[in-house]
Specification:
Radius of gyration of chain B: 13 Å
Largest sheet of chain B: 6 strands, mixed
Oligomer: heterodimer
Structural class of chain B: mainly beta
Strand content of chain B: over 45%
Largest interface: A-B, 24 and 24 residues
Strand content of chain A: over 45%
Shape of chain A: globular
Largest sheet of chain A: 7 strands, mixed
Order of helices and strands of chain A: EEEEEEEEEEE
Number of helices of chain B: 0
Number of helices of chain A: 0
Chain lengths: 114, 111
Amino acid sequence: NAGVTQTPKFQVLKTGQSMTLQCAQDMNHEYMSWYRQDPGMGLRLIHYSVGAGITDQGEVPNGYNVSRSTTEDFPLRLLSAAPSQTSVYFCASAEESWGQETQYFGPGTRLLVL
Amino acid sequence: EDKVVQSPLSLVVHEGDTVTLNCSYEVTNFRSLLWYKQEKKAPTFLFMLTSSGIEKKSGRLSSILDKKELFSILNITATQTGDSAVYLCAVLKAAGNKLTFGGGTRVLVKP
């Protein structure tokens, strides 16, 4: 199993550009989530999904969209990038929402918005 | 609003020292508290605590939860340079859908 994979590893955007951060897992996990981590701060939940076709907002959803058309994939879209979205983004998955104690994290995507 | 606060923000110790990290929380419908270690990449799971007063141990690391006073501590004894990392505390609510993280404690262990 590859676990949780994220692409790209690093991305530079200009203000106003859009892009999609990819996240995939091959463990047939129902629960997937996106976090951002800023310097000196813990992880903050952006969006999460408890299964295909179901998504919900986390703590900091503004400026981001998600979709969950398959169990495996959970892409995060930045609609119009802003410097405030410069951060490290982590995708995570768990067998189901009640099993977040064994949440698996992807390697992260470092995003710089100029 | 749910809140998880970790202290200290950072600390520097020498190999062999013992460190104690604190995590306090204010959440409704508490289910469990989790500790993670993060070394320049994704967090890795250390402990899950659900019941008060029951110590969890893994080698030189141990942790305990106090659900009455709403805090947890993570102890690292006989520290090594490989323990240098950011330690994150997170709380899972009974609804089970969201983890709320603290800001982390950065630990630097000097030889």
